[in-house]
Amino acid sequence: MANLDVRIKEMIGEDFATIATSNLDLFNAAVNEIADMLPNEVLLKYADNPADLSHSPTTWTSVEGAKVLLVMRLDSTGIDRECRAVSIQDFGKAKDSNSIYYSTEHSPVYCLTTDAGATVLDIAPVTTVSETAKIYQYTYSTISDLAVATVSYLPPELEQAIVLKASVNILQAYISDFVQDEEDHEMLSMIQTQIQTLGALFQVEMDRYTEQDKQPRGE
Description:
- By secondary structure, the protein is an alpha+beta fold.
- Helices cover 40% and strands 17% of the residues.
- Helix 5 links the parallel strand 4 and strand 5 (109-115).
- It starts with a helix and ends in a 12-residue tail after the last helix.
């Protein structure tokens, strides 16, 4: 299978890296936008190993650059219970034994809390030696070299969508510079038409994964 940079060249030309010097950032933006469009069920299928929480640590600090897909906590009988995401306000209620929103081992919750810009994931009830938790997450792309054939943690069937979206991003950045520096309106029109064509092809690819019923497609 051809590397991603080769496939982008086939879409928009050999000089794609020079017409947009931020091509790596634009590629990663395309990958992460696609990831955010996918149902969590699809991302879970390709997720990295989940993070484990026990009595130490009881909070997950690797939140930055990650999308939380699912949090599971063991109860005292060894059954996995899904933790429900709640707001910071409701998380306070979940820890109050006098509140009707008090969380139990059978109805655990989690919350992304922050302190001085540092975000962590907290679970209630707090994990213990035997009542542990697993955090399934998607780590956002930070690819630094396009001379690779695959993108980690995403379905291989989505590689064409990634190439198409990255190509659109690069051409859009090129247009921004082009409008400021050039006066060739015919060339500008051709590029805009190419963006529309690639965008339509991208949407066709994504429709398999983002239909109303949210069922994974083409796998």
